[in-house]
Automatic annotation (TrEMBL):
<comment type="function">
    <text>Aminopeptidase N is involved in the degradation of intracellular peptides generated by protein breakdown during normal growth as well as in response to nutrient starvation.</text>
</comment>
<dbReference type="InterPro" id="IPR045357">
    <property type="entry name" value="Aminopeptidase_N-like_N"/>
</dbReference>
<dbReference type="InterPro" id="IPR024601">
    <property type="entry name" value="Peptidase_M1_pepN_C"/>
</dbReference>
<dbReference type="InterPro" id="IPR042097">
    <property type="entry name" value="Aminopeptidase_N-like_N_sf"/>
</dbReference>
<dbReference type="InterPro" id="IPR038438">
    <property type="entry name" value="PepN_Ig-like_sf"/>
</dbReference>
<dbReference type="InterPro" id="IPR035414">
    <property type="entry name" value="Peptidase_M1_pepN_Ig-like"/>
</dbReference>
<dbReference type="GO" id="GO:0006508">
    <property type="term" value="P:proteolysis"/>
</dbReference>
<keyword id="KW-0031">Aminopeptidase</keyword>
<dbReference type="GO" id="GO:0008237">
    <property type="term" value="F:metallopeptidase activity"/>
</dbReference>
<dbReference type="Pfam" id="PF17900">
    <property type="entry name" value="Peptidase_M1_N"/>
</dbReference>
<feature type="domain" description="Peptidase M1 membrane alanine aminopeptidase">
    <location>
        <begin position="226"/>
        <end position="437"/>
    </location>
</feature>
<feature type="domain" description="Peptidase M1 alanyl aminopeptidase Ig-like fold">
    <location>
        <begin position="445"/>
        <end position="549"/>
    </location>
</feature>
<feature type="domain" description="Aminopeptidase N-like N-terminal">
    <location>
        <begin position="20"/>
        <end position="187"/>
    </location>
</feature>
<keyword id="KW-0479">Metal-binding</keyword>
<dbReference type="Pfam" id="PF11940">
    <property type="entry name" value="DUF3458"/>
</dbReference>
<keyword id="KW-0862">Zinc</keyword>
<protein>
    <recommendedName>
        <fullName>Aminopeptidase N</fullName>
        <ecNumber>3.4.11.2</ecNumber>
    </recommendedName>
</protein>
Length: 874
């Protein structure tokens, strides 16, 4: 496979002004008639360039230029491209292709999912529909006519507004859609099916009425309300916070079961993976509701950050994704608990993105090269990209950031632009120089910020030395220091915040401040301190960096109960737990657990003042995945044992407090999705899980009762999970059977059922995983099922996956090879856990590497998997 470089970007030789499409949909295939109105790009230096159109898996039926069929020799069908060597300056090109959606298992382009036709064109799926200059800087107006059998496909949808419809012969009908906004082909969408319609309306800030519609399979009609409300909240929020009004008269959401991604922001016609949009109290957990709200908002926000202003090329992917993730995280923070949202985002970043940044696939937020762009829909592009925008927001402040985003949207409306254009708009609006800041887009790797301090009692000066360094990553060494906003506070022994007066400053000193790091080393002197302070560093996770400071356990305990910054309070607890667990990794059986940890958790559980949502987060022990990420050479079994030991010790020591916590938080009243209600469910289910972990009989009875009587999925699943992860083998089996029986006809819940087992070291050992693959509800063609079994096993059931005998790795290699033939995008994602082989102790890493080599040696490897495997072995 070829490598594509950002440095080789060239403007397109030809532009497309108008695309007219006619789809004839049949059971054995589809015929696509395309008419492109093309002109030479005045900005391209090449005057006699051939016309080059991408194609993939297409059967060409005919091609005509300005109405005259082209003869052999006048065009070249290369399979992956259609080339017309000689074209006039302006012309119309008519192309007819035949495709087979019913056999499309890659789920790119046009395919069928449970009887309906649907599309996925980002990033390069449109070329699987027809020949086209399939690059985001070619923006055209689309008109789309869909023809299909009327009884099987009464609903025919595409982008924009419906402008025509009618009956055809043989029981067929058609609908024509027109999208007035020029767009890249990756935003094209088509849906045809027998779907029910849910309607609502939204009145925009300027008083326009927008027709809102959801289209779902009839069995899902009851699961639409939450997403529809989330959509309306998103539309209002984007008006209030960013001044962005919706632009078409109609906005549609469609749910499909088979989908590679979570959802897709096609203009006016968002297509969602069912699991990311359908929800009801009985079938969706709190986490699912929150995820759905965030994804609905994310896709809606793309209408401006992505669609109206799009990416020039795929190296700029974070232009729309990083910005839009930042926007959806602001939205979620506004809708719920901002501290909890920040904790969740930072946890994901530190556990998974830091690991990506430290592995063989590490890449900058704006990559410089790729083989297969689908491999770059990563945590770095999305989550780190969002953190980069968040830092700009923090550096500029609310008002200037809004000025900057207004300028960006206004200046680039209708254009395909770069991350640099985004930063420039922020600079121009605010007058700030973000020159050095741009390195965040160019340099890969997670900066390490090391802090040391000195206190001089006689002068009252507290000196902080702050050093930054960025580790080497594949292809990048000797990196330059970055511009890092570093928020901090200092606490006195009584827990009071101390004034932060830098040497030489006058006036009233703030109690918290953001230091701007720009050099490899800084020294900050704070004056007027009558005691040695405890530093609270990187408050609210003000930059995506690792902070090293030699906190003592005493100091962490202190911060855990006194830091006014909620995020750092949580973080102090995490650091303490990490320290305690790490000290037990590989230690003899007899080694004791730090008793102060139990005391700290006890005061937490008894703290009636503390925000319950924060308490619920603080009670989560650091995950195995995070502990592995922090390790130099991870010994998974030892980490697993140490963590289990601490969990057991805490649960034993806090048995009564946990029971009281459970009883205090059992449900009263109706199911609600407020942060308080979510926190209560989280607290009681955590308590239940811990108590079952130590085999508590009373808790067993409570779990069974909760499992049977729950009026919502969070509690039912919480009880199921606690039972599954306990040693009560018989109760586990019974609960799993009952759960399946109750929900067997709901695919989303069946996916939960799969993943609860696959991620449990009790119910998800390899032989049991293989049984799940043979289960009648498992389906290799459905990405959600693959993720819920194979993905959950490899990413969450770490002790079982990293079985020292190597069987877990071999299993994963086998599944990757099998999937590579049908769905390479999903196959390439599943490889990820193996790519980190260098991170593990030698006994593990050798076997992980040989599993990768097995995949490498498979015949006819897809470009997707090829890139991941070869880069990991390099
Ligand atoms: N559908 C994916 C997202 O919204 C890719 N655009 O992030
Ligand atoms: Zn997105």
């Amino acid at each position: 496979p070829q490598t594509i470089y950002l440095s080789e970007y060239k403007v397109p030789a030809y532009l497309v002004d108008q695309v007219d499409l006619r789809f004839e949909l049949f059971e054995d295939g589809a015929r696509v008639h395309s008419t492109l109105t093309v002109r030479r790009n005045p900005d391209s230096g090449e005057s006699a360039a051939p016309l080059f159109l991408h194609g993939d898996s297409l059967q060409l039926e005919s091609v005509a230029l300005n109405g005259s069929p082209l003869r052999t020799g006048e065009f070249e069908d290369r399979g992956d491209a259609l080339v017309v060597p000689s074209v006039p300056e302006k012309f119309e090109l008519q192309v007819v292709t035949w495709i087979e959606p019913q056999n499309n298992t890659r789920l790119e382009g046009l395919y069928k999912s449970s009887g309906m036709f649907c599309t996925q064109c980002e990033a390069e799926g449109f070329r699987c529909i027809t020949f086209y200059p399939d690059r985001p800087d070619v923006m055209a107006r689309f008109r789309t006519r869909i023809e299909a059998d009327k009884s099987a496909y009464p609903v025919l949808l595409s982008n924009g507004n419906p402008v025509d419809n009618g009956e055809l012969e043989n029981g067929r009908h058609f609908v024509t859609w027109e999208d007035p906004f020029p767009k890249p082909a990756y935003l094209f969408a088509l849906v045809a099916g027998d779907l029910v319609e849910k309607k609502d309306t939204f009145t925009t800030c300027s008083g326009r009425n927008i027709d809102l519609r959801m289209y779902v399979e009839p069995r899902n009609a009851k699961k639409c309300d939450f997403a529809m409300d989330a959509l309306k909240r998103s539309m209002r929020w984007d008006e209030d916070v960013y001044g962005r009004e919706y632009d078409l008269d109609i906005f549609m959401i469609v749910a499909v079961d088979d989908f590679n991604m979570g959802a897709m922001e096609n203009k006016g016609l968002n297509i969602f993976n069912s699991s990311c949009v359908l929800a009801s109290q009985e079938t969706a957990t709190d986490a699912a509701f929150q995820r759905i709200e965030a994804i609905v908002a994310h896709e809606y926000f793309h209408n401006w950050s992505g669609n109206r202003v799009t990416c020039r090329d795929w190296f700029q992917l974070s232009l729309k994704e990083g910005f839009t993730v930042f926007r959806d995280s602001q939205f979620s923070a506004d809708m719920g608990s901002p501290t909890v949202k920040r904790i969740e985002d930072a946890t994901l970043l530190r556990t998974a993105q830091f690991a990506e940044d430290a592995g063989p696939m590490a890449h900058p937020v704006r990559p410089a090269s790729y083989m297969e762009i689908s491999n770059f829909y990563t945590l770095t592009i999305y989550e780190k990209g969002a953190e980069v925008v968040r830092m700009i927001h923090n550096l500029l402040g609310d008002e200037m950031f809004r000025k900057g985003s207004d300028l960006y949207f206004q200046r680039h409306d209708g254009q395909a632009v770069t991350t640099d254009d985004f930063v420039r708009a922020m600079e121009d609006a605010s007058g700030r120089d973000l020159g050095q800041f741009r390195l965040w887009y160019e340099q890969a790797g997670t900066p390490v910020v090391s802090v040391s301090d000195e206190y001089d009692e006689s002068s009252g000066i507290y000196r902080l030395t702050v050093r930054q360094s960025i580790p080497d990553t594949p292809g990048q060494t000797g990196k330059k220091p970055q511009h890092i906003p570093f928020a901090l506070g200092l606490l006195g022994a009584d827990g009071q915040p101390l004034p932060l007066k830098l040497s030489g400053e006058s006036g009233e000193a703030p109690l918290e401040r953001v230091l701007e790091l720009s050099q490899a080393e800084h020294c900050f002197e704070f004056e007027g301190l009558s005691e040695r302070p405890v530093p609270s560093l990187l408050r609210d996770f003000s930059a995506p960096v690792r902070v090293h400071y030699p906190w003592t356990r005493e100091q962490l305990l202190f911060l855990m109960s006194h830091d006014p910054d909620g995020f750092n309070r949580w973080d102090a607890g995490q650091r303490l737990a990490v320290d305690v667990i790490q000290s037990l990794v590989g230690a003899p059986e007899s080694a004791g657990v730090e008793p102060r940890l139990v005391d700290a958790y006890r005061s937490l559980l008894q703290d009636s003042e503390l925000d319950q949502a924060l308490m619920a987060k603080m009670l989560q022990l650091p995950s195995e995945a995070y502990l592995i990420e922090l390790a130099e050479q991870a010994d998974v079994a030892a980490i697993h044992q140490a963590r289990e030991k601490v969990l057991g010790y805490l649960a034993e020591g806090l048995r009564d407090e946990l029971m009281a916590c459970y009883r205090r938080n059992v449900g009263q009243g109706d199911y609600q999705l407020t942060p308080e209600a979510i926190a209560r469910r989280s607290l009681r289910n955590t308590a239940l899980g811990w108590l079952l972990h130590i085999g508590d009989q009373e808790a067993l009875a409570l779990a069974k009762e909760q499992f049977r009587g729950a009026d919502n999925m969070t509690d039912r699943l919480g009880a199921l999970r606690a039972l599954v992860n306990s040693d009560f083998a018989e109760d586990r089996t019974q609960a799993l059977e009952a759960f399946y029986k109750r929900f067997s006809d709901d695919p989303q819940v069946v996916e939960l059922w799969f993943s609860v087992q696959a991620s449990s070291d009790r119910a998800g050992q390899l032989p049991q995983i293989r049984q799940l693959l043979d289960h009648p509800a498992f389906d290799w063609k459905n990405p959600n099922k693959v993720r819920s079994v194979v993905g959950a096993f490899a990413a969450q059931n770490l002790a079982a996956f990293h079985n020292p005998d190597g069987s877990g790795y071999e299993f994963l290699a086998e599944q990757v090879c099998r999937l590579d033939d049908s769905n390479p995008q999903i196959a390439a994602r599943l490889v990820a856990p193996l790519t980190r082989w260098r991170k593990f102790a030698p006994g593990y890493s050798k076997q992980m590497k040989s599993a990768l080599e097995r995949i490498r040696d498979k015949a006819e490897l897809s470009r997707d998997v090829y890139e991941v495997v070869h880069k990991s072995l390099a």
